[in-house]
Amino acid sequence: MDGDPEDPEDPEGSTAVGRALAILGDRWVLLILHRAFVLRVRTYAGFRDALSISESVLAARLKELVRTGILTHVPVRDGRTRHEYRLTGRGLALWPLLVAIYTWEARWSGRALPPLVHEVCGRAGLPYLSCGSCGRAVAARDTETLPAAAFAGAGPPRRHRRTVRADAGADAFGYLPASMEILGDRWSTNVLAAAFLGTRRFVDFQTRLGVAPSVLADRLRRFAEQDVFTAAGGDYRLTDKGLGFFPVFAFLVDWARREIAAPPGSGPAIVHRPCGAALVPVLSCPACAGPLRRKEIHYGPGRPP
How does pLDDT run across 32-52, given as a tens digit for each residue? Predict the structure, then answer.
C-alpha cells in the first residue's frame, strides 16, 4: 500500500469500497487509467491528445488521481525538465480491474477487440476469474457477499459534473463505450455495486445509496434498456450480461480492501461458497489455466486458444 492520502471529500464513516467507488466511478478517470496502462501515456499533453479531453476536465481528473495516490507527478530530465504522471503501486494494483472491464466489453458489447496474449504459454484469449484459494473458476452465483449493510453508508460525494463523450470510432481499446455506459458515472457504478450486494427493490436502492428518486429511476431504466437488469413487479435483478460484470466488482472490492484504509470489518467480504474461503480474485489464462501477471500479458492476435 502506498499510504492513504488525505481525502477531505470522503464522508465520515465511509467504507473502503464506498471510497473506491467515489474515486473510480467516473468515465474520464477510467479512460485515463486505460491510457496509462495500455499505451503508457505519461504526460499531460499525451493524455489530452489521446483522449480529446478538455484541459479543465483533464487537469481536475489528474489532480484527483494524484491526490488519491493512484498517480504521482514527477519531474523528469532529458535535456530539459518536464513532468510525468506515473502509476504508483496503488495505481498499478488496478490492472486486473481494468483487464476485467476489457474482458466484459469483449464478451458482451459485440465489438471485435484484440484478445490478451499470455506470454508464459503464448496463447491468446479472454481471461476468466478464479479463486486464489482453491484455483477453481468463479461466477457470481458461486459467491456470497457479506456484510451487505456495510457497503457505503452514505451516497458518494459529487466530485465531477457528468460528461458525455462520443465514441472514438477506430480506437480499439482506449475507449470502451459499453462499459462506460455502466461504469461511467458515480451513480451508475454504485447502483451496479448495490445490485451485487443483493439490492433489488427501488426503495432499497434509494435507502442504501441516498440517491434522488429521479436519478435512480434514470439509472435503473438505462440498465434495463441495456439488458443489464430485468425489471418485473418492482424487482430489479441482474441478467447474465449484468452478472458478467462480477469480476469487475470482485477486483474493486479486493483493491479497496488492500489499498484504502477503513475500520476493520467495515466493508463487504466476498465468500467463494464451493471452498468456503474469502475470495482472493485472480485472473487466469483460458489456455493454460495459469495465473495472469501484469508483466506477462499484452494485447494482440497471438495464437488462438
Answer: 999 999 889 999 999 999 898
